[in-house]
Design goal:
It is a single chain. The termini are close together. The strands form two sheets. Strands 2, 3, 4, 5, 6, 7, 8, 9 and 10 form a nine-stranded mixed sheet that branches. The chain contains four helices and 15 strands. A hairpin with a 5-residue loop joins strand 12 and strand 13. It has about 200 residues and is mainly β.
């Protein structure tokens, strides 16, 4: 089957970042503090904030980590495997929000710090998909699909989680390690081959 008969999805590369609860935001930046949006992200209602924090692990630190908004019910730190080596943290690959049993770290802001008991993850690669498009391609929330990246370092990402919502814009999310492995950049188009292990010529 030719690519024109398969779903084409734009790429969004996710660098390390932090989602903060309101309580942790105030501990780091001050009482009654509110995030200051500087750039809207592709997904509606999501934005990059002006605020930056420092991540502290058992072996090292990473400064200047962007906070994304809006605030959430629990703080979540998303890093790459490469970041984990620098920090000395063995973070699991998880879907966003699935934090139970994950390791913690220390967050440092301009007025205080937060010692997280859990919340550091490597985000599982996934596709944000609007409801109508999911219906067209007969896909459901939590389905797993194979995604083909063509080019000089062609590869297939297996078991990519489909996340379906009326609030989503179509986008394939990978972290910087995955993007570098396939020479991907933001806005590149990849091909959804279908469910399960379908990566083949």
């Amino acid at each position: 089957m030719s690519d024109k008969n398969l779903m084409q999805v734009p790429v969004g590369i996710s660098n390390r970042h932090v989602h903060l609860s309101q309580d942790d935001l105030e501990k780091l930046f001050g009482k009654d503090y509110r995030l200051n949006p500087i750039k809207d992200l592709t997904q509606p209602g999501q934005y990059a904030a002006k605020e930056l924090v420092t991540l502290v692990g058992t072996k090292g630190i990473i400064e200047g980590v962007r906070v994304l908004g809006p605030v959430r019910s629990q703080t979540q730190v998303e890093v790459s495997r490469t970041d984990c080596f620098k920090l000395g943290i063995n973070a699991p690959v998880r879907e966003s929000g699935v934090l139970s049993g994950s390791p913690g770290c220390v967050l440092v802001g301009p007025v205080g710090m937060v010692a997280l008991e859990q919340g550091v993850i490597i985000a599982a690669r996934h596709i944000h998909m609007p409801v109508e498009l999911a219906k067209t391609w007969k896909l459901n929330d939590k389905d797993l699909v194979d995604v083909l990246v063509k080019g000089d370092r062609e590869l297939c990402f297996r078991n990519v989680i489909v996340r379906v919502s009326s609030n989503f814009e179509l986008e394939f999310h990978v972290d910087t390690d995955e993007a570098n492995a396939a020479l991907l950049k933001n806005g590149d188009m990849v091909t959804v081959l279908g469910k399960s292990a379908s990566c083949s010529d």
